[in-house]
C-alpha cells in the first residue's frame, strides 16, 4: 500500500515542500518509507486517484493547471503523463464524477468550476466546461472580496455536485449531466453572513450533508433532497469551546480549527441529522 502527499513549494507560500512524496505504508506496523519525491512541481496540493487506482491527479495551487501521473503497480512510483489548463487561477480541489470520465475542479481565485475529461489511458483532455460562479460577497474584507469556490462534492447518486463558496456565503448545487454542470432548480443554499462555507460531507446512509464554515468556525447540518439537490438547513453548531477567544478558522469536516489547532468531533443523530 502506498500513500501520496502533496505540498506547497513556492516562495510566495513560504513553503518548504519539494513536490509529491510517495511513501510505502507498512499496514502491520503502521510505518512509512519514502520511496520517491516528484520534484519541480508548483504547489501540488490536493490529490485524487482514479477509480481503478492506476492514475493520480493533482491541482497546482496559485497556478492555472492540473497534472496527471501514472502509478506503477509494483513500486507505487509516479510517471508524469501530461498537464492541462483549468481555465482559472488557484485550483484548490478536484473530484471525479461517478463515471470516472470527468474531473471537476474548483478555481478558488478564478471564481469558476472547471470540467476536464480524462482519456482511457489516464491522460487529461482539454478543458470542456467552465462555469463562472457569481454572487454577492460576504462582509470579510480579506477573505470575501469575490466568489471563492473551494470544494466539489458529488452526491451518492452522482446526479448533483455541491460546491461551497467561501466568498459569497453560499453552497452552490449543480446538476451534472454528461459532463455538464447546470444550476439545480434551487441553485444554492445561503449560509450565515460571513461564515465562509468551505468543505462538505454526506452522511454515509442518511439524507444529510454537513458543511464546515471556515470563517466563523461552525458546522451546518442540511437535509438533502436527492431528487432536486435542495439543501434545507437544520442546525448550526460552533466548532470551538465557549472559552476560546483567539482568531480561528475551521477548515475540515470533522472539524479542524486552524487558529486553536484543535479538532472538534460532533455526535450525529441518524434520524434528524
From TrEMBL:
<dbReference type="GO" id="GO:0006006">
    <property type="term" value="P:glucose metabolic process"/>
</dbReference>
<dbReference type="InterPro" id="IPR019405">
    <property type="entry name" value="Lactonase_7-beta_prop"/>
</dbReference>
<dbReference type="GO" id="GO:0017057">
    <property type="term" value="F:6-phosphogluconolactonase activity"/>
</dbReference>
<protein>
    <submittedName>
        <fullName>6-phosphogluconolactonase</fullName>
    </submittedName>
</protein>
<dbReference type="Pfam" id="PF10282">
    <property type="entry name" value="Lactonase"/>
</dbReference>
<keyword id="KW-0119">Carbohydrate metabolism</keyword>
<comment type="similarity">
    <text>Belongs to the cycloisomerase 2 family.</text>
</comment>
<dbReference type="InterPro" id="IPR050282">
    <property type="entry name" value="Cycloisomerase_2"/>
</dbReference>
<dbReference type="GO" id="GO:0005829">
    <property type="term" value="C:cytosol"/>
</dbReference>
<keyword id="KW-0313">Glucose metabolism</keyword>
<dbReference type="InterPro" id="IPR015943">
    <property type="entry name" value="WD40/YVTN_repeat-like_dom_sf"/>
</dbReference>
<dbReference type="InterPro" id="IPR011048">
    <property type="entry name" value="Haem_d1_sf"/>
</dbReference>
Amino acid at each position: 500500500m502506498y500513500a501520496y502527499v502533496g505540498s506547497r513549494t513556492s516562495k510566495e507560500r513560504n513553503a518548504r515542500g519539494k513536490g509529491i512524496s510517495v511513501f510505502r505504508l507498512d499496514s502491520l506496523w503502521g510505518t512509512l518509507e519514502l520511496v520517491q519525491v516528484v520534484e519541480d512541481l508548483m504547489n501540488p496540493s490536493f490529490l485524487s486517484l482514479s477509480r481503478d487506482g492506476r492514475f493520480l491527479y493533482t491541482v497546482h495551487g496559485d497556478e492555472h493547471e492540473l497534472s496527471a501521473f501514472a502509478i506503477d503497480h509494483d513500486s507505487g512510483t509516479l510517471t508524469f503523463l501530461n498537464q492541462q489548463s483549468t481555465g482559472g487561477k488557484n485550483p484548490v480541489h478536484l473530484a471525479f464524477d461517478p463515471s470516472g470520465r470527468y474531473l471537476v475542479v474548483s478555481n478558488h481565485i478564478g471564481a469558476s468550476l472547471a470540467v476536464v475529461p480524462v482519456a482511457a489511458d489516464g491522460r487529461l483532455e482539454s478543458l470542456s466546461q467552465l462555469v463562472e460562479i457569481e454572487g454577492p460577497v460576504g462582509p470579510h474584507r480579506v477573505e470575501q472580496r469575490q466568489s471563492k469556490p473551494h470544494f466539489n462534492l458529488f452526491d451518492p447518486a452522482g446526479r448533483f455536485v455541491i460546491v461551497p463558496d467561501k466568498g459569497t456565503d453560499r453552497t452552490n448545487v449543480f446538476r451534472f449531466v454528461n459532463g455538464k454542470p447546470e444550476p439545480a432548480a434551487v441553485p444554492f443554499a445561503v449560509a450565515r453572513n460571513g461564515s465562509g462555507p468551505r468543505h462538505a460531507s454526506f452522511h454515509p446512509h442518511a439524507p444529510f450533508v454537513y458543511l464546515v464554515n471556515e470563517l466563523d468556525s461552525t458546522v451546518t447540518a442540511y437535509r438533502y433532497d436527492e431528487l432536486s439537490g435542495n439543501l434545507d438547513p437544520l442546525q448550526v453548531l460552533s466548532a470551538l469551546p465557549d472559552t476560546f477567544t483567539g482568531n480561528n478558522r475551521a477548515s475540515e469536516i470533522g472539524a479542524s480549527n486552524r487558529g486553536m489547532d484543535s479538532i472538534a468531533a460532533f455526535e450525529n443523530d441518524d434520524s434528524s441529522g
